């Protein structure tokens, strides 16, 4: 099976802009989770989607949002970008009946 | 609430010597525990997972971890380090909802020849 894919792999944006990141889960996986990785805060949970519904949410401001499509692909959006949003954004997919998450390669976002 | 503490931020070993990466956890229930590895500019790769079937868990690339409930520890070991093991290692506990993994701060493993 193909693994989790994320696009784009690298992004450079300026403060105030918005950005959309995409994640395609492993075939058959219906749960997609998003994480932010920074040197200072480490890996932090953003949110999780299952069957097009947000099932769990971390402690991030409302500028961070996401959605999931009927084919389980997911997008996350960050509006009004701040310098502190520069990070590696990782998505992970999970199959039914398990809590094991399989991660994609990540999207490196740089905010200037 | 769940939490994970990785006791060493950096571990250095010589190639061919044993590896020990230490992890303590705190949880109000019986969680799943994981070790993931991240090579530079890469995503996270699952090394191994503990549920409750066995306290000694074998993973990929010769790694294994032992769950000790009395010590609330889940240390990762490998008998003989290889240069390719140099990476960042994360000890992880599952959240109560089963999602929302909680990560330790990570341990950087350096391997010298």
Explained architecture:
The complex is a heterodimer of chains A (112) and B (113). By secondary structure, chain A is mainly β. Chain A is built from no helices and 11 strands. In chain A, the strands form 2 sheets. In chain A, strands 2, 4, 5, 6, 9, 10 and 11 form a 7-stranded mixed beta sheet that branches. Chain A has a 4-stranded antiparallel beta sheet with strand order 1-3-8-7, with no helix packed on it. Chain B is mostly beta strands. Chain B is 0% helix and 51% strand. Chain B contains no helices and 12 strands. Chain B has strands at 3-6, 10-14, 19-21, 23-26, 33-38, 44-50, 56-58, 64-68, 73-78, 87-93, 102-103, 107-112. In chain B, strands 2, 5, 6, 10, 11 and 12 form a 6-stranded mixed beta sheet that branches. Chain B has a 4-stranded antiparallel beta sheet with strand order 3-9-8-7, with no helix packed on it. Chain B starts with a strand and ends with a strand. Chains A and B meet through strand 4, strand 5, strand 9 and strand 10 of A and strand 6 and strand 11 of B.
Key traits:
heterodimer; A: 112 residues; mainly beta; 7-stranded mixed beta sheet; 4-stranded antiparallel beta sheet; 11 strands; B: 113 residues; 6-stranded mixed beta sheet; 12 strands; 51% strand
Radius of gyration of chain A: 13 Å
Q: What's the main sheet of chain B like?
A: 6 strands, mixed
- Name the poorly predicted regions of chain A: none
- Which of globular, elongated, flat, extended, rod-shaped describes the shape of chain B? globular
